[in-house]
Design brief:
- The complex is a heterodimer of chains A (about 575) and B (about 260).
- Chain A has about 575 residues and is of the alpha/beta class.
- Chain A has an eight-stranded mixed sheet, sandwiched between helices. In chain A, strands 1-3-2 form a three-stranded mixed sheet, with helices on one face.
- In chain A, a hairpin with a 3-residue loop joins strand 2 and strand 3.
- The radius of gyration of chain A is 29 Å and the shape is globular.
- About 20% of the residues of chain A have low confidence.
- Chain B folds into two domains: about 150 residues, Rossmann fold; about 90 residues.
- Chain B is about 45% helix and about 15% strand.
- Chain B contains twelve helices and nine strands.
- Classes of the chains: A alpha/beta (about 575), B alpha/beta (about 260).
Chain lengths: ~575, ~260
């Protein structure tokens, strides 16, 4: 059976980045896009030409950068202008991306031999605003819904943008009872962060005012009248996160926020953090404890998730981290195995027959020397469910389970940790499997006890994972696998600070000879930032766990190779120095 | 754009000129480029143009120095020396082409070092023999920067002996010509196939480990030319080989349907 969703590659290929195709649940007449997904009208016939033509047109718009926020703001609520702009932009995209557009599309009656009338979005906008007569926009171009595209941009920023504004004091705040800093417990500080109410009754409109600039509220009203539901989407996310955060604080056993003295005595590890603003480390800044999993509501049923890994995945990972080993008495090989050869000669002389023909020595890649630490993001944001009702958390669990099963069964040294945090004083690494531990049913049980709560302090998780690999396992090939749904967000830990710290933590790990890769499943929005931090080559983002199979080996191999190369060049430099 | 008579190769840049100049000066050549962009075809075409025999070695991770240079084999009760392809190329004054050189181990590739610099000699330590390469001998390596294996990359000392020629997939106009020439298809079909190929290459960082190479496009075109339905041909030559993931394959199939429509 064919469905519109199968046009995802088509859309991505033309758009030049990951774009999915969705079918609208509401009655829509025309296709539109928010820059990440192309939404098709429900009644679009899959086989009919217009269905894919719409997708191509919309993807080309994304590829040509037509959904530019500055322009979109000018288009809000101006239907006529939108259609004129759309026409000009499709012509421009057709010209710009011609080499990769389907022939049948470029040769359609509307586009054949029609030159582009503009060379940039700004020119298109100016032309659309002018009095120049343009042909009417054909239906297969779809449409542009400026409000929806803008909203997607906002919800991408979401929580982070809001908090940044808040910290800069750009949001007006109602008076809140001030706590004395010395007396304030972590709990009250954290609650304060979330409870700061915003000035107006409608937090969304305030936030949009702040993010998009003034003049939007009229369009907000319009959009609401137009019946474009889901307008509270970004704030809904915040509220959910907030609720989870507070629940986590209230739940006594799950998080007992420790105070300073207790921290000093308890078995708490201290990690530094990189302050990218001050360009310096903050020593002993983050407090981390290793704990066992516990869940307020008891274990969840993971039978559908903990499916055994496929043989394909095993094949993929089997060739990682292998080293050469000399094998004696081989049937073929580069060298003669003198011992075997003598035996053979003796056999011949003594009349034993037949003598063994295995008289060669061969070097084969069979020795496994890979240590893997899988670090799993179990912060609250992963618990959010996507359109299909599956949460990133469950997908990540499944991925972690399959990877760890596979690595373990291949004989690699493996550890598996979950991590979440509530500010710098409480970063938790939830131990699911230690390096020395043997695989058993207990590990699946521990996975079932994980709960997605808290926030993401990615740098500390990387440092801890890398330290465990480095200190506890003395193997030459070390791989840290980070499974997360997005870049860091924690109290006083976000955006450039968080990215700077994460990058620093990665550099530290790589300098110590540990390769790091980042896997993301079912989370698309923050990949841009993640790939800035990790480097695009060390990231693998997929929608479903099964898709990772074909690609994970390359990602891991590259990461391991770059670390090994660095080690090699350092040892060469060292021997050069020694020679001098 | 020149087309040689027997093994056709259509240049996209100055690769012919560089290769010929390197050959004339006894310099080794390193060909870089993604799979199926024409590295091997280029070497074959140049070997014909220069009228030199071609000795090809497909490198793999178990390739040892012995495989290249030669080894003693047991025959009856005695050991017999047998030349490897590198030694044969030196003795006969041919082009030795080491395909996918990174796949071979770094210590293996070191045997080519004396051949790749001003000495131009091959030391066969097991025979205690040293061969001086004749003027016609030429060393060509190829290498796909797209996939590097764990712990393996070309040593800087190997790289720096080489004249590097970077090959990429040809641009749309040239690729259309190649398809028409190789598979004898008409311009319209070539245009459609090339656009499909270009679009799939755009997916590379995202959905697929590798893009559709010129080689896969030629294969598709040939199947179509033999009377296979275009969609079936695209499925067999592009979608199925590129990905085992059923979702990805289905998506590719839909792409082919759109582009070949």
């Amino acid at each position: 059976m064919r469905s519109l969703e199968d046009y995802g590659f088509l859309a991505s290929a033309i758009a030049g980045r990951r774009v999915s195709v969705q079918v609208s649940t509401k009655p829509e007449a025309l296709a539109f896009s928010d820059g990440r997904a192309i939404v098709m009208p429900a009644e679009a016939n899959v086989c009919s030409q217009p269905a894919w033509m719409m997708i191509v047109a919309q993807a080309a718009l994304i590829g040509a950068g037509s959904l530019d926020a500055v322009v979109l703001r000018q288009l809000l609520g101006r239907r006529n202008l939108v259609q004129r702009y759309l026409y000009l932009e499709v012509l421009r995209a057709n010209f710009l991306l011609n080499d990769r557009l389907p022939w049948a599309f470029s040769q359609s009656a509307v586009l054949r031999d029609v030159p582009a009338l503009s060379h940039s979005v700004a020119e298109s906008l100016a032309c659309a605003q002018s009095m120049q007569a343009l042909p009417s926009t054909p239906d297969f171009f779809g449409t542009i819904r400026p409000w929806i595209a803008l909203r997607a941009a906002v919800s991408d920023e979401g929580l982070g943008a809001l908090t940044r504004r808040q910290q800069q004091g750009a949001l007006k705040q109602r008076e809140v009872a001030e706590h004395d800093e010395d007396e304030a417990t972590e709990e009250s500080q954290l609650l304060k962060l979330f409870q700061n109410p915003f000035s107006a009754g409608n937090p969304l409109s305030d936030m949009l005012n702040d993010i998009l600039g003034a003049g939007i509220s009229k369009s907000t009203q319009q959009a609401k009248q137009d019946g474009e539901g889901g307008a509270e989407m970004p704030i809904g996310r915040i509220e959910r996160a907030l609720r989870r955060g507070i629940n986590a604080l209230i739940s006594k056993r799950s998080v007992d926020l420790p105070d300073h003295q207790w921290l000093a005595e308890a078995q708490t590890l201290k990690y530094p953090e990189w302050d990218s603003h001050a360009k310096a480390y903050r020593r002993d800044w983050v407090f981390l404890e290793e704990v066992d999993p516990w869940r307020a509501e008891g274990a969840q049923n993971l039978d559908d998730i903990l499916t055994p890994p496929t043989r394909a995945l095993r094949r993929q990972l089997a060739t990682l981290g292998l080293d050469h080993e000399m094998h004696r008495r081989q049937g073929e090989g580069a060298d003669l195995d003198i011992g075997a050869l003598i035996d053979c000669a003796i056999d011949l002389q003594a009349g034993h027959s037949p003598p063994s023909p295995k008289v060669y020595r061969a070097s084969r890649r069979t020795r496994r020397d890979l240590a893997v630490a899988i670090v799993l993001d179990i912060s609250g944001s992963t618990g959010e469910q996507d359109a299909s009702g599956k949460s990133a958390f469950k997908k990540q669990l499944q991925l972690a389970y399959q990877l760890s099963r596979t690595f373990d069964s291949l004989g690699d040294t493996l550890s598996l940790f979950g991590f979440h945090s509530w500010g710098r004083k409480l970063v938790r690494m939830v131990r699911i499997k230690g390096h020395g531990e043997r695989w058993s049913g207990v590990i699946a049980e521990r996975l079932a006890l994980l709960e997605p709560v808290g926030y993401t302090r990615i740098g500390t998780a990387i440092r801890h994972g890398a330290r465990l690999l480095h200190d506890e396992v003395r193997l030459p090939n070390r791989l840290l696998v980070l499974i997360t749904d997005g870049i860091a967000y924690d109290q006083d830990y976000e955006h450039r600070y968080a990215e700077g710290d994460a990058r620093k933590a990665l550099q530290e790990a790589q300098a110590a000879g540990t390769a790091c890769v980042c896997l993301s499943v079912g989370a698309g929005t923050e990949m841009q930032k993640l790939s800035e931090v990790f480097g695009a080559a060390n990231i693998l983002a997929v929608d479903e766990v099964a898709q990772i199979t074909g690609r994970i080996r390359e990602v891991c191999r590259k990461a391991l190779a770059s670390v090994a190369k660095r080690k090699l060049s350092r040892s060469l430099a060292g021997s050069d120095k020694a020679r001098r | 754009m020149n087309v040689s008579k027997s093994t056709a190769y259509l240049s996209s840049g100055q690769e012919r000129e560089i290769f010929s100049a390197a050959a004339a000066n006894g310099l080794p050549v390193l060909l870089k480029g993604p799979t199926g962009c024409g590295k091997t075809r280029f070497v074959q075409a140049m070997a014909q143009e220069l009228k030199r025999p071609l000795f090809t070695v497909a490198c793999h991770e178990d390739l040892t120095a012995g495989d290249l240079v030669g080894r003693f084999l047991l025959r009856g009760g005695e050991t017999v020396w047998e030349d490897g392809p590198l030694t044969r190329a030196v003795r006969h004054g041919g082009i030795c082409y080491l395909d996918e050189i990174v796949e071979a181990r770094a210590d293996t590739t070191v045997v080519i070092h004396p051949l790749a610099d001003h000495r131009r000699e091959l030391n066969i330590e097991r025979l205690g023999e040293s061969l001086i390469a004749p003027k016609e001998f030429m060393l060509v390596l190829s290498y796909n920067p797209g996939y590097q294996s764990v712990l393996k990359d070309l040593k800087p000392s190997t790289r720096q002996r080489m004249v590097a020629i970077e090959l990429t997939y040809p641009n749309a106009a040239i690729e259309e010509q190649i398809l028409m020439q190789e598979a004898d298809i008409d311009n319209l079909l070539a245009k459609r196939l090339v656009r499909l190929g270009q679009a799939i290459r755009g997916l590379q960082n995202d959905g697929l480990p590798e893009g559709a190479s010129t080689r896969t496009l030629i294969a598709t075109a040939r199947l179509i030319q033999s009377g296979i339905d275009p969609l079936l041909a695209a499925d067999a030559c592009i979608a199925a080989p590129l990905s085992d993931d059923p979702v990805a394959a289905k998506n590719l199939r839909e792409m082919a349907r759109v582009y070949l429509a």
